[in-house]
């Protein structure tokens, strides 16, 4: 018969005492950890460390960081945890040039504001002054003196009316590859076509088209000019059926320009 090991009470007492001591130590460490975390939390919220210290602005091209920060109403001393993201989005989103806004908090004290601006599809030229036109058709205040825009076409001889709004809407539908090919767009109405426009392209070609459905008519421009001799002067008519009309002399070109 196997002999069973008999453990006396005297042998177990030191082991029980040791386990009891370890449990007490663990509880003490847990309480101390909780106390220090609580203490650090109180210190954090009572110190400048809990305030917004860094504001990152992303996605802006035309609007300055300072403008966006001013619109957000974030200041030195603003609580990092007390910021109202919805209010910031509302204030910045109400600005004419902003289409989308998002706000993100990055611990411990950084606020990141991401914006998306409306595209500038053209610049209205009036008396040597240039007024940006947004894809919404909104006309902004004139650009600073001596600033010449080069990122979108110039609209020449236009008035601030329905035709201008419709033209802006058509330009907003164009890919950048086409927009960057256009240098100037003149409003040149005639009796047969009150919406006629004349374009001067950056590659030297001249185009006659119309405002209505312009974005669809001009989309084939790259393919058409590939087939043309760049040395020949003339005008590309891009309405129903595109075709190239070569000028015989400069006088004919002048007559065409005058309508």
From TrEMBL:
Xref: Pfam families: FtsQ_DivIB_C, POTRA_1
PROSITE patterns: POTRA
GO cellular component terms listed in the entry, alphabetical order: cell division site; plasma membrane
Membrane topology: Single-pass type II membrane protein
UniProt key word Cell cycle: yes
Main location: membrane
Domain POTRA: 47-118
Gene Ontology terms describing biological process: FtsZ-dependent cytokinesis
Transmembrane region(s): 28-45
Family: Belongs to the FtsQ/DivIB family. DivIB subfamily.
Function comment: Cell division protein that may be involved in stabilizing or promoting the assembly of the division complex.
Identification of the protein by name: Cell division protein DivIB
Source organism phylogeny: Bacteria, Bacillati, Bacillota, Bacilli, Bacillales
């Amino acid at each position: 018969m196997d002999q069973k090991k008999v453990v006396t009470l005297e042998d177990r007492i030191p082991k029980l005492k040791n386990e009891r001591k370890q449990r007490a130590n663990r509880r003490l460490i847990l309480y101390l950890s909780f106390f220090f975390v609580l203490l650090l939390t109180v210190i954090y919220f009572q110190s400048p460390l809990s305030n917004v210290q860094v504001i990152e602005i992303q996605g802006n091209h035309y609007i300055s960081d300072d403008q966006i920060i001013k619109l957000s109403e974030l200041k030195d001393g603003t609580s990092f945890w007390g910021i109202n993201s919805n209010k910031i989005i509302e204030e910045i989103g109400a600005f004419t040039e902003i289409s989308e806004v998002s706000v993100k908090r990055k611990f411990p004290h950084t606020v990141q504001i991401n914006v998306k601006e409306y595209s500038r599809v053209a610049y209205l030229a009036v008396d040597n002054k240039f007024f940006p036109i947004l894809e919404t058709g909104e006309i902004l205040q004139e650009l600073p003196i001596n600033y010449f825009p080069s990122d979108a076409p110039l609209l020449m001889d236009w008035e601030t009316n329905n035709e201008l709004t419709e033209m802006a809407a058509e330009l907003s539908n164009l890919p950048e590859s086409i927009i960057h090919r256009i240098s100037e767009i003149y409003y040149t109405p005639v009796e047969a076509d009150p919406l006629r426009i004349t374009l001067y392209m950056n590659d030297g070609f001249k185009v006659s088209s119309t405002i209505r459905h312009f974005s669809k008519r001009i989309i084939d421009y790259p393919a058409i000019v590939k087939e043309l001799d760049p040395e020949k002067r003339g005008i590309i008519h891009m309405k129903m059926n595109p075709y190239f009309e070569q000028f015989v002399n400069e006088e004919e070109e002048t007559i065409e320009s005058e309508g």
